[in-house]
Amino acid sequence: MPNALGRDLAKLVAAVDAAASECGHGAYGQHFHIMPPAGWLNDPNGLCQADGVFHAYFQYAPFDVGGGVKAWGHATSRDLMTWDYVGAPLLPDEPFDCHGVYSGSALVEDGRIRVLYTGNVKLSDADGTYDYVNTGRRADTVYVESVDGLAGREFSQKCVVLASDDYPEDLTCHVRDPKVWRDADGRYHMVLGARRRVDGPHVDSRFCAMHGEGAGRDVGEILVYGSADMLSWELESRVSTPKRFGFMWECPGYLELETDGGIPAKFLSFSPQGLEGGRWDRGNVYAAGYMPVTGDITGGKDAYELGEFRLWDAGFDFYAPQEFTSEDGRHILIGWMGMPDEPTYGNAPTVACGWQHCMTVPRELTAGAGGVVLQQPAREIECHYASVRVGEGSLEVAGDTCFDVVVDGVDGAFTAIVDGELKLAFVPAEGELPARFEMRFTDEGRASAGCGRTVRWEPVDEVRNVRIVGDVSSVEVFVNDGALVFSTRIYPEAYGVTVDTPGACVTYHILNI
């Protein structure tokens, strides 16, 4: 239940939210993507469905459009496309979360929503000795549960279930983002992102200036805990790769997808920080992806093997995704359509209106071949089709801010221009570059539709089909049944889509949301 600080914070947040509702989101407010009422949004948290209602909590800094102390905002929906913001139920009002109610997850059980999150604390550093990597920070795992049934708007007294002192001693202070699930035997499991300390000589890395001298040596890993009641936890396993793969693995998740053979395909999802060299230098500063799992990650280091790391999304704006299972058994992923620590591009048009960032469209996940997860917009989007236009080989439509374009039967060439400045194309191999699918802004200036975004591409041997989903200030592209996905924010002066792909069928749906 709220204390005095919590009550005062609640009043302040409510005042900001009320003022924001009067002003609106401006010309680039999204129609079917979750946005903050004001200020800053990042990681999706506590995704779940309860009694037919979808709940999306999220990292919310209402007082500062550039970030700041985080609370949990809360939005609900019955169709995954129309979302209502209903408040900020978790606020930084305890000594163990006073610098932020950081990311976490939820389970719906016994008529309540049960939540685990990371409480962030940066200790006062009067003499300047803390580096906040190895010293000076606490990241306790905190438990709460709803006291208003499945409404999920009011929560119980907070309880620390794992203190920072409980984590393995060789870890830095960076342990966070619990994701919880319950197995078929009724036992709870939780994964936590972690950064393991590695001592040694200085290693030159572009990440050291921001993340400390150890960013060139430290190792990312995931802690796996088990529990009978979600309150008392014991360490079951520590998961990492044989070869160092970044210095921090955050926002972890574990999922099992059904296959045609009936044997679940297992995947470990996480957002590794510190990837550099080779293909990582042409992508985002931080990646978000998944690895196929063979064996059992709860059984110790000899009980599992990890496969190839694949990106969830190869576009400009995607990070920290979270997956949950809907009441009808679908696996649904939502990501943050943003990117931390990114100085080369931004969101100036929404910042000018007092808000920044949104979530992706919810995506249904299915198991593809060869350890690939296929992503498609949640099927509920089809309930909002207002009208349709069909073209053979090409199609040009102008003026719509919300659309869903499906291109089937691509055989060779594919090009699409979105809003006059975003080019999507299958590009043949040239020189040292492989055949690839490319997302490119034609104007790379900070005042352009891309606000400084340039180009992203991934190698692909062929393009069979493409789906393009547009909202007012975002574009999400699904290639080859969603085996490859690109997302970006976009701030155009005019709207329109042109597709040119000889022999293919282009179906353009206007969305009424």
TrEMBL record:
<dbReference type="InterPro" id="IPR013148">
    <property type="entry name" value="Glyco_hydro_32_N"/>
</dbReference>
<keyword id="KW-0326">Glycosidase</keyword>
<keyword id="KW-0378">Hydrolase</keyword>
<dbReference type="InterPro" id="IPR051214">
    <property type="entry name" value="GH32_Enzymes"/>
</dbReference>
<dbReference type="GO" id="GO:0005975">
    <property type="term" value="P:carbohydrate metabolic process"/>
</dbReference>
<feature type="domain" description="Glycosyl hydrolase family 32 C-terminal">
    <location>
        <begin position="451"/>
        <end position="494"/>
    </location>
</feature>
<dbReference type="InterPro" id="IPR013320">
    <property type="entry name" value="ConA-like_dom_sf"/>
</dbReference>
<comment type="similarity">
    <text>Belongs to the glycosyl hydrolase 32 family.</text>
</comment>
<dbReference type="Pfam" id="PF08244">
    <property type="entry name" value="Glyco_hydro_32C"/>
</dbReference>
<dbReference type="Pfam" id="PF00251">
    <property type="entry name" value="Glyco_hydro_32N"/>
</dbReference>
<dbReference type="InterPro" id="IPR023296">
    <property type="entry name" value="Glyco_hydro_beta-prop_sf"/>
</dbReference>
<dbReference type="GO" id="GO:0004564">
    <property type="term" value="F:beta-fructofuranosidase activity"/>
</dbReference>
<dbReference type="InterPro" id="IPR018053">
    <property type="entry name" value="Glyco_hydro_32_AS"/>
</dbReference>
<feature type="domain" description="Glycosyl hydrolase family 32 N-terminal">
    <location>
        <begin position="33"/>
        <end position="377"/>
    </location>
</feature>
<dbReference type="InterPro" id="IPR001362">
    <property type="entry name" value="Glyco_hydro_32"/>
</dbReference>
<protein>
    <recommendedName>
        <fullName>beta-fructofuranosidase</fullName>
        <ecNumber>3.2.1.26</ecNumber>
    </recommendedName>
</protein>
<dbReference type="InterPro" id="IPR013189">
    <property type="entry name" value="Glyco_hydro_32_C"/>
</dbReference>
